[in-house]
Amino acid sequence: MSANFPPLARRLDGLQSSAIRDLLKLTSRADIISLAGGLPDAELMPRDRIAVAADAALSERSRLQYTESPGWGPLREVLAARESERLGRAVPVDEIFVTHGSQQALSLLAEVLLDPGALVICEDPAYVGALQVFRAAGARIEAVPLDAEGMRLDVLRERLAAGARPAVVHTVSNFHNPGGVTLSPERRRELANLAEQYGFWIIEDDPYGELWFDRPSPAPVATYSPNVIRLSSASKILAPTLRAGWMIAPAQVCRAVELLKQGADLCGSALTQQITADLLADTDWLATHVDSVRRVYGTRAKALVDAVRSRFGDRVTSTDAAGGMFVWVDFTDGTDTTALLPSALDTGVAYVPGNAFAVSTDYAHSMRLCFTTSDEAVLIEAVDRLAKAHAAVGQV
Amino acid sequence: MSANFPPLARRLDGLQSSAIRDLLKLTSRADIISLAGGLPDAELMPRDRIAVAADAALSERSRLQYTESPGWGPLREVLAARESERLGRAVPVDEIFVTHGSQQALSLLAEVLLDPGALVICEDPAYVGALQVFRAAGARIEAVPLDAEGMRLDVLRERLAAGARPAVVHTVSNFHNPGGVTLSPERRRELANLAEQYGFWIIEDDPYGELWFDRPSPAPVATYSPNVIRLSSASKILAPTLRAGWMIAPAQVCRAVELLKQGADLCGSALTQQITADLLADTDWLATHVDSVRRVYGTRAKALVDAVRSRFGDRVTSTDAAGGMFVWVDFTDGTDTTALLPSALDTGVAYVPGNAFAVSTDYAHSMRLCFTTSDEAVLIEAVDRLAKAHAAVGQV
């Protein structure tokens, strides 16, 4: 049939599935401890509170109907109040747009903000879900490497001075996926200044900002400039099944996204949006709930990082895991993480090799470890297995 | 800010909101009986059954997690069984893809099947949500008029013979929105034959097929050719809040759509998809439920059509409303429905003028009436008001 339908055949050739998704399919074997995933822990999701909210939502028949494209009104109001507090200014409701997870915001924004051939600057290593939509929009992608304080603005500044004119700079500002690091307050301010100086949009992609372990995340990049479109989500603090992401952006950006959302899928679900509003508005309950998630993830993160450092010593450097879901580990002994993977799977542990997230830097000696879905003992066992695999490959 | 951001400014200039949506905003006044909407009746939606299913779904923590991009497995199995029965062949699960309403299927298919400049043939009058996505994909749109038996295949055949080479032909096969008519069995077979002869895809968009009043809808176009991509939805028989649409298509089309869905929004909601699966699998309950919706809508449709015919006599022709949600009325006395609208709103009734759905035919004398959300007495009152407005305009 393909011969008759050239666009379809070309799409199938041209589209690449996420390497991580494909890997995850291979690592669902019961005998493998997977540090390769990127999922929050379902055991920590507030099932009972969601059930109560679902019952309440269904008491109103209007929740069964189509809802407005920018999101169910009361959810947008709750989000406006929440973001007003976070951003330190009164955020009006028409600057709030509810999306089907943050991923939909990225996808619609790529259509709104990018012409084919436009330059998008991402971080290296990058969130691959963002790369995918920017590439699909026909953008040219350049990457700026991360260091311990997030995106290296010295490199960005050089590129801009040399004539680079990005339409969009994308940053995962807190507890980077996959890099684990957080953009420092000084760099946030400077990035915002550069956006105004050179006239580009910043997409501040922030699904993990609430998941800090020791101290709150810095003020959002969006506090420093109206050129920032800020994305967040209920997936990591409540539950992905709600498919509730949101965007805080100038009203005209929201308006353009609304017109595209009508074509993309008309509207979200008033049921899951009311559940989300209900839980986010229950601020005392929410504070206690998020605290407990922080505590559990923080303990797991520390166990994982401690185990990595004690087993591998100076053959690795690792991020501290101050929040979020991921640790980024660099081997300093020349270990190739793609070459190590089959041996690791043999010993019963999975991770994602660094090059799965690489844009233009070589991350052959790096890997991403996710600590959210295993308890401490299992994480320590996972690192033991990784050390065994590493030793085995070392002996070859 | 626009000056700095030319793509955004251009998008805002270029994108058009749905005329119907904008009109609906004006017609939500309490004193107006709106026949302009396109919503199913929330009073008929199975709220209690959905609440039971929601409780059951939430008993499993895994329903809180991300789910697979092509849809929650058990829902795809229920749909495969359902469509196997409808299509008279064993439909494998990899030919079933769950979307966020049918609209998302249209949007993703436009990306998969169309190159910029590709020809798409729609019906005239057309479903505007389809026009919007085909236009956004850069397609050229041509329209083939409807008659009482659906798309005029004599016109399509002439166009093909004259050299037209569509990539896609889009048809709302049952109880057309807005045209009210159903594609006849003979034309279904012929359309399928033309698709194979000329090598185009048919998108058979079928949200209303279950809502027949007197006798079941004809066998789907998809029973006649593998070139048909069939779309359906739970929105009109269960509830829009479930945001559950589905596509039955060759596995390679589903695969291409899957890769795009990962970028568009990762996945749907396992919660709403399990609720949908639960209700669709409960076949005895479902049959009773859908029967009751048919009965109510059928009674309303008949009341509306009878009132239109008795008030306007030979100054109008009207479809019979054998199913679905809409009646299409043509004035034979030269009444311009766009000119009539302000007067109609003054007397307290709203409808959508035919030209809101026009592609290349002039529907200045036509209008779409929706009968789903008012009872018989209200529908009769609405037509009385319409007759008053018509008389008032006639006197000017």
UniProtKB/TrEMBL annotation, chains A, B:
The keyword Transferase applies. GO terms for molecular function: pyridoxal phosphate binding; transaminase activity. Keywords: Aminotransferase, Pyridoxal phosphate, Transferase. InterPro entries: Aminotransferase_I/II_large (IPR004839), Class-I_PLP-dep_aminotransf (IPR050859), PyrdxlP-dep_Trfase (IPR015424), PyrdxlP-dep_Trfase_major (IPR015421), PyrdxlP-dep_Trfase_small (IPR015422). It holds the Pfam family Aminotran_1_2. GO terms for biological process: alpha-amino acid metabolic process. The keyword Transferase applies. Residues 32-386 form the Aminotransferase class I/classII large domain. CDD domains: AAT_like. Its cofactor is pyridoxal 5'-phosphate. Homodimer. Belongs to the class-I pyridoxal-phosphate-dependent aminotransferase family. This is Aminotransferase class I/II-fold pyridoxal phosphate-dependent enzyme. It comes from Nocardia terrae.
